Amino acid sequence: MSWTLLELLPELLHIAGYSLVASLLTVLGVGAELESWHTFAVEGLSVMTLWYAFMGAAILYAAVYLVGYEQLLPRVRRVVAD
């Protein structure tokens, strides 16, 4: 399928949006993981340490798998293949 600029623009906007969301979620998830390590180093094993670790892992899962793999990658493949 040959893309015209008018047909390609919405796909590129979706790709840019999903890339932005995945990037922001990744930064947030890494920040939560780093905070869990910091809390563990300062306070030892506490509820907050576990909370930060769990939330960081959940956010990283959302960023990499749910947004990146499930949403972004198929759109990029579709645009590149056509």
Automatic annotation (TrEMBL):
DUF8151 domain boundaries: 1-80
Keywords for the protein's UniProt record, in alphabetical order: Membrane, Transmembrane, Transmembrane helix
TM annotation in the entry: 12-30, 50-68
One Pfam family in the UniProt entry: DUF8151
Domain of life: Archaea
Protein name listed in UniProt: DUF8151 domain-containing protein
Organism: Haloarchaeobius iranensis
